[in-house]
Records
---
Amino acid sequence: MLSKIQPEPDPILQTGIREEAVVLPGSAYGQHEKPQHHIHMPGFNHNGHKVTRGIHPDGESGRGGVHPWHFLRIAFRSSSHLSLVANFLWPFVPAAIAINFARPNLHLWIFILNYVAMVPSANLVGFAGQELARKLPKVLGLILETFLGGIVEIVLFMVLLHNTVNNSLIPVIRAAILGSILANLLLCLGFCFFAGGLRRNEQEFDEVISEVGNGQLLMAGFGLLIPSAFYSSLRGSIEDAVLEDNVLHISRTTSVILLIAFLIYVWFQMHTHHGLYADSLEKDEERDADRHLDLAKDKLTFTECIVALVIALTCVSLHAVFLVEQIEYIVHEHGVSDAFMGLILVPLVEKAAEHLTAVDEAWDNQMNFALAHCMGATIQTALFNSSLVVIVGWGLNKPMDLNFEIFNIVVLIMAIIVVGNFLRDQKSNYLEGALCILIYIIIAIASWYYPNPTPGTTNTAEGGGIASNGTIP
């Protein structure tokens, strides 16, 4: 006999779902296992909107198609006060595009305007991804949101790789890979710890997110270190051409292995250990200080999310092309080193949207979400994006490898160790956040003074990089 289960009032307030469910006899409902035959009848979410089939109630907009006024109002409001401030930079977007065609000789202004315009464009990518993620199951939505946040980085890497002449921009790509990891690990995570610690003495996060993420980072650090260590150990012992060829083969093989590791990590999150991640994220939603406000906000429709992503990615791609075209001029004429350009300048603008989202989550006491964003983006860069750019370079017959400067790789390994130590007790405070930020500032200062190495003197191969005298070898 079928039994009818009515929802309790309190869960409705927590989840924003009003629904009826039918449970078949003999099900494990109420026990640790999930019911095998749990049929949700049509329900309504917290705002009284009928929940569309396949859409999570938290992401139900109650509308369909595209409504221009609602679209612009919701997109401009964005997801947080920080994101709203970033949207005031949208006037730079048309200005940056126009100046590239109207005054192509103003290299510095083209670089500055496109650099600033990248922030609101990337912010829209992040917001549209977040709105789309609300409509999906939590773990799948978080993975998709993190991946979409990394799209900006992938576009920049691909444009850099495509535009490189005589391999001149490959050192910038290498530095940008490590710089992106450092920006997430030290700067973003540091601001999350610091912002959350200002409102609470301590914040806690679950072991499944911190330990798994830290393990993946150690594996990635090891994989990224090997080609550099191999080159440094054997330089001078065998011919340079043979050594560089061997390092290139090692890098390509390592990239395939790192890509496999990333796919296993995604499978671990989405399939075999999905329940652990879902439980951690649900705990965070219960602790969210602004959950009632988030639930009450108007949402984008599914179609509007796609439109926003298309607009944002188009702008990001244009800015990336115009930005990259000016990098060699900035390095030549203004003395900015490859290390500072790659480690600091490029990652700061490409990661702006992800950082704003994660810091807002930490401020609202959602440390599992914040940590998942920081660690997820870092792991994606270390395992997926770095591997992708090497494999694409392989297809384009360009010698893109993982032979990093020793300075860069040492900084990366030390950052992984420092952050791993802070994550060990599953607690955070503003002191740990401040220390992470200060370490990042030290790295930024050192990279500003780090010169462009003469080819052949360090881990820079002959014919690669922008020489210190401003010429391309």
Note: The first helix runs from residue 9 to 15.
---
Amino acid sequence: MASMPVAGASSSSTCLVPYLDPETSENSTAAAIRALPFRRNIFMLLGHSPGVFPPLMGVYAALFNGKTRTLPLLDWQLIVLRIATVLDAEYEWDVNAPVAQVHGIGEEKLEAIKAKAEDIQDENSAVGKVFTDRDRVIVKLVDEQLATYTNEPATIAKAQTLMSIEELMESFIVLGVYVLIARVTKAVRIDLDGEIPGLEGYIKAMVTE
């Protein structure tokens, strides 16, 4: 039987807490992690919470599936990558940038996501021209939330002219769950995942439009 691609921590781990070892742990989540087609360090951290880990992974699974996710895939990833940028969450960027790339985001837009808010919102700037009106309002929703935990009424009003109410509400759900991941990974100094052989194929199979 072929061995599972594992992205475990190296001997020079910077993580402040131990990763769950699904091969030896009696934790009830270990079997679920062993069943995954590949492993990431984040699974070995969240897996320490056996009661919460499975339903939380159900939320992420719903976002991976184009049949259950309301937002277009690249809108979802725009939110996630902007969170990673603003919160300086390197792990979150490292995991999600390949998803966006496999599904068609170009290098120019990927780099533009890292730009200053005022440049993105200026539709006449070189950076601003990379984004659509819809993109810019999504970024504004994210930036305002991360700065103040709320949004300006004008931003919500503008969003509703460019998005359905279902898409808007799902955007807030994405914000919440990916800010959670950013907080966990930064707090415990998670290690970046090692190389996962065949990652592009896994992304194509597991993350659908």
Note: Confidence is low (pLDDT under 50) at residues 1-6.
---
Amino acid sequence: MDYVAPSTQNVSAAGAGFNLAAAIANIVNPAGAVAGYGRDLLRWLERSGVDEVEFQRCTELAKELAYPNKNGMVLSESVTRADTRLQQLKQGHLPLSLTFSQALGRLLMREPDLCYMVSTTACLLQHHDLAFTTSALTSVVLDRGGHEEETKYTYEPWRASIRAVIVKVVESIFLNITNAGHQTNAMPQEMAALHVHVVDDANFAAITMQIQRASDDLLLKAEIFPGDIVLWILNHFGGKMEVYVARVKIYEADCQHVWR
């Protein structure tokens, strides 16, 4: 499984005009092409009390760790439709002051190498609270493998500072995307009746990131139905997926990415 960064036309078009790293650079140099986004980002950082250096470190660590597949891109498409509708209302000269949300959650949706943070958060929030989602996403960003025998993490002195940024990222995604009604695909009907069990945040990160690093076929065995892991796979894995319960195949799908 050769891994290439995927995106839809919507994300590619938006990404062509918005680059998060460039936006961060334009906080200092506002004359650049994405100065407008830089100002929006700076305002968000100021409102949230997030250190610019720690935010940049976090985004550098988080880049290209995963990509939503065609199922996961349903979330982006939902946000795009809402923005298109708002644009139409603005053009209708209504007696209202309508503006596009410039919250970080929306900005991340436009960055192909980081938009998985939004879709991953949306998946996690279907089964977990904000605190767990923050811990799991932090573990994803910091995961560097080495879990062949067991889930094992060494202490990272910068985990606290990275988590402080992720807290604000998750809150922004919750308030401005999932709480606004934009969701990833739900569990398919074939698995909806299964009793969902969830894993802890460290195992969530270890399993999902091991899936991302795999270059061959994968077999995930579990004595219980790990619903949060399965939902993430449905929205991020690139390839053919089959689910068996008691040796009986109950679901299969071709979860392909939309390649650039």
Note: Strands lie at 239-245, 248-255.
